[in-house]
Inverse folding.
């Protein structure tokens, strides 16, 4: 499964049938990955949605969200490690923020590992503000989670 920087990529909404591809990216990107069964089960929840960036037929990255009322929570944003730093994460995030505005969402929240400098840079670059911290949040390392908020009337997309 090779993907090149020049290859045309497209965003599309994911479905339960994409759970295997999502889970594969989870295993590549996270120390506490969602299993294929967890990914598939998430689609049964009314508030859950996921969007993927496909380069050719390959899933290059994805974002999963919960949306309730006028608020959206980003659960996971992942890009395959070998194609990071090419703008895919920014494209996925900004597309999601534009969609949230169209859905009349006003606030977007997320949690990120305190040590994940690349993700923090991406979020701050798109207008997210650090608003809190959850101590010892991640079960695998005890690392803190930083809470970020984007008020969509002031966030960039």
């Amino acid at each position: 499964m090779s993907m090149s920087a020049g290859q045309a990529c497209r965003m599309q909404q994911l479905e339960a049938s994409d759970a295997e591809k999502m889970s594969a990216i989870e295993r590549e990107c996270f120390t506490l990955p969602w299993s294929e069964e967890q990914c598939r089960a998430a689609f049964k929840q009314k508030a859950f949605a996921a969007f993927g960036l496909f380069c050719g037929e390959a899933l290059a990255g994805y974002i999963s969200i919960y949306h309730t009322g006028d608020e959206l929570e980003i659960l996971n944003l992942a890009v395959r490690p070998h194609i990071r730093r090419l703008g895919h994460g920014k494209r996925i995030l900004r597309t999601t923020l534009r969609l949230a505005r169209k859905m009349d969402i006003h606030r977007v929240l997320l949690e990120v590992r305190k040590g994940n400098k690349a993700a923090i840079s991406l979020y701050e670059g798109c207008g997210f503000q650090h608003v809190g911290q959850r101590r010892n949040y991640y079960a695998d390392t005890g690392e803190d989670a930083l809470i970020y908020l984007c008020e969509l009337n002031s966030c960039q997309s």
In short: The first helix runs from residue 19 to 29. The chain has a mean pLDDT of 91. Strands lie at 9-13, 48-55, 58-68, 71-79, 107-113, 129-134, 145-151.
